[in-house]
Amino acid sequence: MSFSDGASKSSSKSSTKPTYSRFTQQELPACKPILTPALVMATFIVIGITFIPIGLSHLSASENVVELVDQYDEVCIPADSSDPDVAYSKRIGYIQDQTTDKTCVRTLIVPKKMKQPIFVYYQLDQFYQNHRRYVKSRNDEQYRDPSASDKTGNCEPEAQLSEGQPIVPCGLIAWSLFNDTYTLSRNDVALPINKKGIAWESDRTHKFGDNVYSKNFQNRSLVGGGKLIDNIPLNQQEDLLVWMRTAALPNFRKLYGRIETDLEVNEIIKVVIQNNYNTYSFNGKKKLVISTTTWIGGKNDFLGMVYIIVGGVCLLIALVFITVYLIKPRPLGDPSYLSWNKNPASVQ
Ligand SMILES: *[C@@H]1O[C@H](CO)[C@@H](O)[C@H](O)[C@H]1NC(C)=O
């Protein structure tokens, strides 16, 4: 090399010059779109005219969902004091008393014909199933494997009885299982709720064992919620499986069961509720939801609205661009707009 001198003794082999490649020289093929006005306007228009119909179809599907919501936590408890503190302690006393009859009868009127399958949900508001210490209070190995019943790691404070026997299923989530029940009837004829197949398939087949049985469950002095049947394997007690798929948000619905007959408009549904679950200590709300579904699921206007708003904004932007383009067009790549051409004096 012409630059190497005798002192550095560098041979051409140890040269620091990189070998040529298209990658190091940044010569790889690349997409370099030129955003011409026509292309930009066309893109916005295409987005607009595809999103608005999608949004409208979501909204109309949501409109076709028939939904009955009944909040029963306030009406299903005797409220016999105007002093809030007294009322509060009376409610807690009522709900925690194992001996009182907590039956509560509600009547609902079907607003529109409801085609089967009709889904029955319970909705809890202000229930933080997503709290870190709650979510972690479980042991999946124990739920899956019958020989792991004493594996109660992570389950504190619901891991063992005071004498040391393990609780199966352990943990706070299982312990706080929802325990209100609903019995439906119309014209004094029972309206059966099918509770089979309400949990995830994978929960039934993999996550919970078909030979794991509950043991020592809700046997402590403070009962957190529903009980389990000891001689039915966990994976068939689907209410538990549904409950243990913890909700991400504090207001959530969980599937209770399915009604497999059509309900006609103006029919009167009598609901007998066993109002057991204690949401009163944290001012939570309880609602019974009876709803049909369509291809988008239950009632949900949000997605349709978002599609329409995004589509509308795109069309609006396209319109603005078109107007600007018509009023004040300028040729693409005009060098007179370059800063040094615009103001030559500022360039030395
Ligand atoms: C239902 O759960 C509550 C706690 O939320 C508990 O106090 C009550 O004893 C339970 N009732 C039944 C019948 O399991």
From TrEMBL:
Residues 1-20, 138-160 are annotated as: Disordered. It comes from the Eukaryota. Keywords: Membrane, Transmembrane, Transmembrane helix. It is found in: Membrane. Pfam families: CDC50. GO terms for cellular component: membrane. The keyword Transmembrane applies. This is ALA-interacting subunit. The lineage of its organism: Eukaryota, Viridiplantae, Streptophyta, Embryophyta, Tracheophyta.
